[in-house]
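Why should sequence recovery work at all? Because a backbone constrains its sequence more than one might expect. Tight turns favour small or flexible residues, buried strands favour hydrophobic ones, and helices have their own preferences. The token representation captures these environments compactly. In the example below, the structure is given first.
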């Protein structure tokens, strides 16, 4: 009987390993893998928070007047009244008058219905059409002023039509199609 007890202890140990300890070790390995994933996620979260704080500090260091200038270049929302006012102010500097202002979001025709396109990228594009009347030299100055104005405008098309002859020279109707941008 004394010689049988060590074999029974060995058999009980082997059975305990396969029935209890072995599955426990595989559970521990799965938990270690999950712990490693959680640690990596925590490290990435910490890095993202540091990056966010750095970007926020950079944003806070921008002077208020520069932010106001950026808001003028690409405003948060499209303000059609302000746009027409800006265009009229620039035109009046050269004795020109803005007429026939048309503002619309770019659309695409899909058969019998018109669908507004989703904005691609971070900006909303708004198509604006208008006509100004004046001399050619005045118009060139007007375009240069548009080019250097604070509001971002892309001139897409220009159409020129002979309007009338005055004592100051020939007057033309200049029809422009431009795109302007806003964040929303």
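From this structural description, the recovered sequence reads:
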């Amino acid at each position: 009987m004394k010689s049988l007890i060590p074999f029974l202890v060995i058999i009980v140990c082997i059975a305990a390993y396969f029935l209890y300890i072995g599955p426990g070790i595989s559970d521990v390995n799965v938990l270690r893998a999950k712990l490693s994933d959680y640690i990596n996620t925590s490290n990435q979260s910490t890095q993202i928070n540091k990056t966010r704080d750095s970007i926020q500090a950079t944003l806070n260091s921008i002077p208020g007047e520069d932010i106001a200038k950026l808001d003028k270049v690409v405003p948060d929302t499209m303000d059609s009244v302000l746009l027409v006012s800006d265009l009229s102010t620039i035109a009046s500097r050269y004795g020109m008058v803005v007429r026939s202002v048309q503002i619309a979001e770019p659309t695409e025709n899909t058969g019998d219905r018109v669908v507004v396109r989703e904005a691609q990228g971070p900006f909303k594009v708004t198509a604006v059409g208008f006509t100004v009347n004046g001399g050619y030299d005045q118009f060139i100055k007007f375009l240069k002023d548009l080019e250097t104005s604070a509001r971002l405008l892309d001139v897409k098309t220009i159409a020129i039509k002979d309007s009338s002859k005055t004592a100051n020279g020939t007057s033309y109707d200049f029809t422009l199609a431009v795109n302007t941008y806003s964040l929303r």
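A few observations help interpret the result. The longest strand covers residues 153-166.
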